[in-house]
Amino acid sequence: MNQNRNERLKEEYFRTKVVGNLRDKGVLIASSRDGYKIPTSLKDLDKFIKHGKRVILPMLNRIREARDTIRLATGNSLDLLQSEEYKELKRFFDA
Questions:
Q1: DSSP letter (8 states) at residue 37
Q2: In sequence order, what DSSP letters do the residues of 18-73 get, joined into one string?
Q3: Tens of pLDDT along 44-73?
Q4: Whole-model pTM?
């Protein structure tokens, strides 16, 4: 992708601005050691979900633990997810 560019396209920029934007628009793009690809089989889709699960579940558990610890320490007077910015997370944990 950098062949005819005056300034090199950095990998971080490509990941966030190109791949990230496509994913946000609903395009399924799977990551692998070899780069990015459009899943073309059930196996590819399964790998995509498994990867997400390995990343998302530990992060959600950390958020829940932090929230529960702070709520316990403050007698439920402080909820880390009380901000409007976190309403989706709060709804997820409170469900």
A1: E
A2: IIHHHHHTT---EEETTEEE---SHHHHHHHHHHHHHHHHHHHHHHHHHHHHHHHH
A3: 899 889 988 999 999 999 999 999 999 999
A4: 0.70
